[in-house]
């Protein structure tokens, strides 16, 4: 069963004694259907465990969207006075209603992209990506608009569908099948070799995927990583950035379906995001869609994964507005 939960009021600390410059995120959020005048970014949740369960992972990411909102609400606001945030609510998937949930997410994404300058979708497992991309494809035809997909992830997520159908491990295979080989542009950064079989590496190479393993994404490797991102982005009309939090080391992101033994340091992840955002500003259609997946509060010691996700969300939605 799939339902939709409208956005609810954000709460957090109020520093009224500090004056107008002491705003926090929760004070800048409007609730759909109200859309503020001027520049606005949006947040849409996808509360789903079905994809992770089908992929034999540990469930709990359905609680991720609300956990991220709680952490994000208390962060200091540095987006300026001319940027506002709209919470567009959450698509909730009960039981095994994955495909129906992804269809609903696609519809909501397509609607949102007509009203906000950038949409952040918060999963859920990485099955979120198929729903998100499907919505993007409703607005921008991937056979006419070159969409560069950049995935920060410990996994390719290029699995073939099994007996249960799609899962959190199949979204980019589904995207490739939808677009066709000539229109599938995919870069996966942060792969854990021991978490991806040889057949997945073979499939990625056959599909022309640009990728880099976590062991080659140390701080000293940042210049090479940036070069790879720039080369991949050449000729693209837009970028779609999706972040699976399991790309981070286990101590930075314990609250995910599959914590990473090595992972990619937050400093390197941040450098990639910064570069992607700069590149997007030069492209015809920029980067209208971004995504954060796999936040699992049930296993999140001290809330560190949610805090990290909130930091990344703040970067994705406000960074270009900072003074």
Automatic annotation (TrEMBL):
<keyword id="KW-0464">Manganese</keyword>
<feature type="binding site">
    <location>
        <position position="153"/>
    </location>
    <ligand>
        <name>Mn(2+) 2</name>
    </ligand>
</feature>
<keyword id="KW-0479">Metal-binding</keyword>
<comment type="similarity">
    <text>Belongs to the arginase family.</text>
</comment>
<feature type="binding site">
    <location>
        <position position="246"/>
    </location>
    <ligand>
        <name>Mn(2+) 2</name>
    </ligand>
</feature>
<dbReference type="InterPro" id="IPR005923">
    <property type="entry name" value="HutG"/>
</dbReference>
<keyword id="KW-0378">Hydrolase</keyword>
<feature type="binding site">
    <location>
        <position position="244"/>
    </location>
    <ligand>
        <name>Mn(2+) 2</name>
    </ligand>
</feature>
<feature type="binding site">
    <location>
        <position position="244"/>
    </location>
    <ligand>
        <name>Mn(2+) 1</name>
    </ligand>
</feature>
<dbReference type="GO" id="GO:0050415">
    <property type="term" value="F:formimidoylglutamase activity"/>
</dbReference>
<protein>
    <recommendedName>
        <fullName>Formimidoylglutamase</fullName>
        <ecNumber>3.5.3.8</ecNumber>
    </recommendedName>
</protein>
<dbReference type="InterPro" id="IPR006035">
    <property type="entry name" value="Ureohydrolase"/>
</dbReference>
<feature type="binding site">
    <location>
        <position position="155"/>
    </location>
    <ligand>
        <name>Mn(2+) 2</name>
    </ligand>
</feature>
<keyword id="KW-0369">Histidine metabolism</keyword>
<comment type="function">
    <text>Catalyzes the conversion of N-formimidoyl-L-glutamate to L-glutamate and formamide.</text>
</comment>
<feature type="binding site">
    <location>
        <position position="126"/>
    </location>
    <ligand>
        <name>Mn(2+) 1</name>
    </ligand>
</feature>
<comment type="pathway">
    <text>Amino-acid degradation; L-histidine degradation into L-glutamate; L-glutamate from N-formimidoyl-L-glutamate (hydrolase route): step 1/1.</text>
</comment>
<dbReference type="Pfam" id="PF00491">
    <property type="entry name" value="Arginase"/>
</dbReference>
<feature type="binding site">
    <location>
        <position position="153"/>
    </location>
    <ligand>
        <name>Mn(2+) 1</name>
    </ligand>
</feature>
<feature type="binding site">
    <location>
        <position position="157"/>
    </location>
    <ligand>
        <name>Mn(2+) 1</name>
    </ligand>
</feature>
């Amino acid at each position: 069963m799939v339902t939709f939960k409208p956005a609810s009021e954000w709460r957090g600390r109020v520093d009224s004694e500090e004056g107008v410059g002491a705003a926090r995120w929760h004070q800048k959020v409007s609730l759909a259907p109200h859309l503020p005048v001027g520049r606005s970014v949006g947040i849409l949740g996808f509360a789903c465990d079905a994809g992770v369960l089908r992929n034999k992972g540990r469930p709990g990411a359905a609680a991720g969207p609300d956990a991220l909102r709680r952490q994000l609400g208390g962060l200091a606001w540095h987006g300026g006075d001319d940027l506002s945030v709209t919470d567009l609510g959450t698509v909730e998937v009960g039981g095994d209603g994955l495909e129906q949930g992804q269809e609903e997410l696609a519809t909501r994404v397509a609607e949102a992209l007509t009203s906000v300058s950038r949409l952040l979708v918060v999963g859920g497992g990485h099955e979120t990506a198929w729903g998100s991309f499907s919505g993007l494809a409703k607005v921008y035809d991937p056979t006419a608009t070159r969409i560069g997909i950049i995935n920060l992830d410990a996994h390719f997520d290029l699995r073939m569908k099994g007996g249960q159908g799609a899962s959190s491990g199949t979204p980019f295979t589904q995207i490739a099948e939808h677009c066709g080989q000539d229109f599938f542009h995919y870069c996966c950064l942060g792969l854990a070799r021991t978490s991806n079989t040889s057949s997945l590496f073979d499939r990625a190479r056959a599909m022309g995927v640009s990728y880099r393993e976590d062991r080659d994404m140390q701080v000293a490797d940042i210049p090479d990583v940036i070069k790879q991102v720039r080369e991949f982005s050449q000729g693209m009309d837009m970028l779609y950035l999706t972040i699976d939090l399991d790309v981070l080391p286990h101590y930075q992101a314990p609250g995910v379906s599959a914590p990473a033994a090595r992972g990619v340091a937050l400093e390197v992840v941040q450098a990639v995001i910064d570069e992607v955002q700069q590149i997007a500003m030069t492209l015809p259609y920029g980067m209208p869609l971004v995504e954060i997946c796999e936040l699992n509060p049930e296993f999140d010691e001290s809330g560190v994964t949610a805090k990290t996700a909130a930091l990344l969300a703040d970067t994705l939605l406000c960074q270009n507005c900072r003074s």
